[in-house]
Amino acid sequence: MANFSKSNVPQFSVEVYQNEFLPEGGREVNAIVTVTSTGGGTTGGIPLAGSTPSPAYRPGQGPDAAVVLMVDCSGSMDYPPTKMRNARDATAAAIDALREGTRFAVVAGTHVAKDVYPGNGRLAVADQQTRAQAKDALRKLSAGGGTAIGTWLRLADRLLGAAEVDIRHGILLTDGRNEHEAPEDLRAALDSCAGRFTCDARGVGTDWEVKEVTGIAAALLGTADIVADPAGLAADFTRMMENAMGKEVADVALRLWTPVGVEIRFVKQVAPTVADLTGRRTEAGPRAGDYPTGSWGDESRDYHVCVLVPEAGIGQEMLAARVSLILPDPSGAGAPQTLSQGLVRAVWTDDMVASTSINPQVAHYTGQAELAQVIQQGLDARKSGDFDGATAKLGRAVQLASASGNQDTAKLLSKVVDVVDAATGTVRLKAKVAEADEMTLETRSTKTVRVKK
Fold first, then answer.
1. What single string gives the DSSP state of each residue in 175-234?
2. Cα–Cα distance between 300 and 412 in angstroms, integer?
3. pTM exceeds 0.85 for this model
4. Roughly how many angstroms between the first and final C-alpha of the chain, as a whole number?
5. Lowest mean pLDDT among 55-59, 172-176, 420-424
6. What's the CA gap between 342 and 38, in Å, rounded?
């Protein structure tokens, strides 16, 4: 396990958990890779607005950041009228949570996108005066028009792309479906923005499409959630902004090098949420590829790497994969830095006990990935009228949530099904389910619990 330390960059460590032993003829190797970043502090050691700087704080310390807040201003935001007011208040709260010196802009999103503050394609620099001006601009926002989220994202990309900063981040709020542009237009916008900035997405109320909001967050390596009651927006936006302000380093890649003959089956983030990164590989030299992980502060994440190795005889061993954390040179001219790395091994044995033992971390996260999948399948079956299929899938979800100690997901499931026996996954579909409860379960289905080590 290697570490990397540099001023204003957290220390990264990589730990690999696996059962490296394979039976004769065995080819599949699974490993959980835990990546931990420490040393940044909740806000990177940099005071938020209104707080008292610590004696150790020096102006200019920490990474430069730029944030664009995209606020849905479509006509549906007027129903009920409190929704638009709550959105304005939440955006104001997020602006208050901006770190001094952070560049920022506010975009009003309808069927077109308009940068309402500071305007003219510019970014403001957060201080007492610009925060007050931005909140004045927010008070003038009103609801009217349609929804074309791809245009909002493209404007955010143009604004953020003009800033010479380390961290680029978006926060997007919508209350409706993306009805005023084709799905392929949104997809093209996401493809264009991927890797250029990260974005947290929130759906307010219950009239938006879960797969659209979660798809935005997945493509842009951010978080997605529902705020069913608009009154909860301010607290949620404050948490989101504080989390964004805690990021210390951007564009960290998980690099996987494999020897000749080794096939990669998949690379997935499995904690704190499930996200399949397999299709997002970019080549990085002979037999190496990079998988994007986005921005990091003080945090720990788990990844599941699965590879197929060539068959080998009893007693042989090989390096199945080398996993590295890579930070590109910002200028693009120099070599990337290796922040940390770990090794995945394969050893062939005739010891049946050793070769059939499943590593606890691998077993846990295999179950968590299945949990996310069966919730989605169960809810889709329920919507299509396949109640037997829905009962089977959601029953399996209850069983997995119970066995893994994922209490948050178990509580959400209990609002959609009546649990007869959690251990066996015996459930009955509820006759009536609140739309907000069903959408909350779907939106949060990918959230996992860490394995007990």
1. SS--TTS-HHHHHHHHHHHTTT-EEEEEEESSSS-HHHHHHHHHHTT--EEEESSGGGHH
2. 25
3. yes
4. 18
5. 55-59
6. 17
